[in-house]
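A reminder from the course coordinator: this example appears on the midterm review sheet, so study it carefully.

Given structure:
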């Protein structure tokens, strides 16, 4: 005996799968340095698009993974106040079998403009003991906050780094286990001391302190189209000038900063939905 197929169920099964666009992120308002001691060669493993979940970064000293006994100092990416510290765990990633993220060591710093930065997987006692930090303490950009390791849900020694902007600054939600921040936007950190001023997976960079803009050469922009999910950031010592045929798509993320001035000429197109930020000021990390 043949059974009648429910047409409503069949209709549901035939719904086409839609492609999901890459997420887009706003550039940070703050300017950050590479969060390793000056002179450290650093490899970027995952960026804001390739990390899972998205919006975060993975990086390691010298790009060789090292070990938890290798002294790769982690430093504050910008000045701010220490708001959360958990560095009592010593469960290494390869030894962890379940609920690994609950055994993560982490530190959160709040910055003057409302952005927060997170530093994860650091060595046990390296924040509270080695760096001597306490909750509520002010730290300067470049100050020691811990040492690279692979504590918690980590695959090899590395630093997990992220920039967040809480939607409710008066009630920031951070879980005790794992230190996960909820109800907060991810932001792409604008980085000093690099020619392109942001990170991508595969980059090899050398950490250094921020000072003046990384170049004194003025920047002229024209005849360029920044397509889907394109990130563009420039910190320039001289003036920035735009001209005709300069287009930023609806899913691009841009930050322009000049020490002297920015002039937008005719023909500039910033499509609705784009993240676009421009500012005039020095390129050092923002003072608190």
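Designed residues:
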């Amino acid at each position: 005996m043949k059974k009648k197929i429910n047409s409503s169920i069949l209709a549901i099964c035939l719904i086409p799968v839609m492609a999901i666009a890459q997420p887009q992120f706003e550039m940070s308002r703050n300017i950050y340095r590479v969060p390793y001691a000056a002179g450290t060669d650093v490899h970027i493993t995952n960026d804001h698009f390739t990390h899972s979940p998205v919006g975060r970064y993975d990086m390691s000293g010298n790009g060789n993974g090292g070990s938890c006994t290798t002294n790769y100092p982690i430093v504050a990416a910008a000045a701010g106040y220490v708001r959360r510290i958990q560095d009592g765990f010593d469960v290494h990633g390869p030894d962890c079998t379940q609920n690994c993220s609950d055994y993560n060591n982490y530190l959160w710093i709040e910055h003057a403009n409302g952005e927060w930065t997170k530093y994860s997987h650091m060595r046990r006692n390296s924040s509270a003991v080695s760096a001597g930090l306490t909750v509520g303490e002010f730290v300067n950009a470049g100050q020691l906050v811990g040492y690279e390791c692979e504590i918690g849900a980590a695959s090899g020694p590395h630093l997990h780094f992220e920039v967040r902007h809480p939607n409710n600054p008066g009630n920031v939600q951070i879980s005790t286990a794992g230190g996960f921040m909820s109800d907060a936007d991810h932001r792409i950190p604008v980085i000093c001391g690099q020619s392109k001023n942001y990170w991508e997976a595969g980059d090899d960079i050398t950490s250094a302190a921020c000072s003046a803009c990384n170049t004194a050469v003025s920047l002229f922009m024209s005849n360029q189209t920044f397509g889907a999910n394109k990130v563009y950031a420039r910190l320039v010592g001289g003036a920035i000038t735009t001209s005709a045929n300069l287009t930023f798509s609806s899913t691009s993320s841009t930050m322009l900063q000049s020490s002297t001035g920015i002039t937008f000429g005719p023909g500039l197109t910033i499509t609705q939905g784009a993240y676009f930020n421009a500012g005039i000021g020095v390129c050092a990390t923002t003072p608190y």
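Confidence is low (pLDDT under 50) at residues 1-20. The CA atoms of residues 244 and 267 lie 4 Å apart.
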